[in-house]
Design goal:
Elements lengths: L1 E8 L3 H11 L3 E2 L8 E8 L2 H11 L3 E4 L8 H10 L5 E6 L4 H9 L2 E6 L4 H58 L11 H27 L8 E5 H18 L3 E4 L6 E5 H17 L6 E8 L3 E8 L6 H4 L23 H11 L3 E7 L3 E9 L4
Parallel strand pairs: 1-3, 1-4, 4-5, 5-6, 8-10
Antiparallel strand pairs: 2-3, 7-9, 10-11, 11-13, 12-13
């Protein structure tokens, strides 16, 4: 159970004790709260003691009388404002002049409760304040977390783009200075590496565009009856030139149409990511098998490779943004580290699931399970 600290600042002992009794067993609950909120009551008979308690205990709410011995309540309010404390201050007073009300409101007083107040009046006011304070703090927390996530994302993205640009710039300067002579063939390896880096950046940009579309809040889907087998074939054909370079064969083992209500581009992104990974992390002379299976309540898309496989620890990080498996077998394999996280987000949009089976040095099988309308 959560609790808010309420500081009662009043030179009348009866007001302080009465407030403590009223709030003793009082709890606030709302449907959007995970738990009840109760109150811990603190007391201060003077403004000076109030400031000491405020600095030490940092209350959530202050019930503040203006007429105090020594410094006045309005000065305590000014102190809270000057310190930028996240505290709701409510003035409790018998004689609130217009001038005091204006000044107190200007200095951040949330409300006025006239004395004497009934238990119901105090509880009702505290209930309203608690709701507003809870929502305000929850909003601040969500904004802070959102900013942190955006900062981390941009930091990783900057690094991913900066590294290949630096490499290409280095190769171009070597060629500009003709450090290896005048023959263009002397720079073939650098040109190949530069083109490979550019290809990687293009892949990253395409992945980012997919990610932006998915995480835009309301991604636009063009749902229609599509042939999943046909889309698998298009993806396999798209990846075949890359597979030939890697000496890997791709086999589409399903021939019959498998129909489903889906966005064709999203299904193609799923296959493109699965097949390109199966080729990328394969061995020379390896193979990739693609299956589409029509179940009773779902459709299964399966891509199996004869590649380098993964350990259980490596599998656990697969679907995180910008995560690439790093080990001696993958150090020359490039990628954005976004493909599988994008795939997972798309599958979640279809309320589907992904299963991964992998054995190091033997291969990996990804199975995407998409529920159909009849499920």
């Amino acid at each position: 159970m959560a609790s808010y600290k309420v500081l009662v600042v009043d030179d009348e002992m009866g007001i302080r004790m009465g407030t403590r009794r009223i709030l003793q067993n009082f709890k606030v609950d709302y449907p959007f709260m995970d738990e009840h909120i109760e109150y811990v009551v603190l007391e201060a008979p003077t403004g000076e003691e109030a400031i000491e308690i405020i600095d030490r205990e940092m209350p959530d709410i202050i019930l503040l009388d203006n007429k105090l011995p020594g410094i006045q309540g309005i000065e305590v309010l000014e102190y809270v404002k000057k310190k930028l404390y996240d505290i709701v201050v409510v003035m409790i007073t018998s004689y609130a002049s217009l001038e005091l009300a204006v000044k107190a409101t200007r200095d951040g007083a949330y409300d006025f409760i006239p004395k004497p107040f009934t238990p119901q009046e105090l509880r009702s006011s505290l209930e309203n304040i608690t709701k507003q304070l809870f929502l305000k703090r929850m909003t601040q927390k969500m904004n802070k977390e959102g900013k942190l996530i955006r900062f981390q994302f941009l930091s990783v993205l900057s690094h991913e783009l900066k590294a290949p640009i630096n490499a290409i710039e280095g190769y171009l300067k070597i060629m500009q200075d003709k450090q290896f002579g005048d023959k263009i063939t002397s720079y073939n390896e650098m040109i190949d590496r530069s083109l490979e880096r550019i290809s990687g950046m293009r892949s990253l940009i395409m992945d980012l565009l997919d990610l932006t579309k998915i995480e835009s809040g309301k991604p636009v889907q063009h749902m229609q009856l599509v042939d999943i087998t046909k889309i698998a074939g298009i993806s396999a054909d798209t990846m075949r030139p890359y597979a030939i370079q890697k000496d890997v064969d791709i086999y589409l083992n399903t021939k019959e149409p498998v129909m489903m209500e889906a966005d064709a581009k999203e299904i193609e992104i799923i296959f493109n990511n699965l097949i390109s990974n199966a080729v990328k992390y394969n061995k020379q002379g390896g193979r990739v098998d693609v299956f589409v299976h029509q179940g009773k309540n779902n459709i299964k898309l399966k891509v199996a490779d004869s590649g380098i496989g993964m350990t259980e620890e490596e599998k656990s990080t697969l679907f995180q943004d910008f995560v690439r498996i790093k080990n001696p077998k993958t150090k020359h394999i490039t990628g954005s580290g976004l493909g599988l996280s994008i795939l997972k987000k798309i599958v979640e949009m279809y309320h589907g699931d992904i299963e991964v089976e992998s054995i190091p040095d033997q291969g990996t099988t990804f199975t995407v399970i998409l529920p159909t309308e009849n499920s």
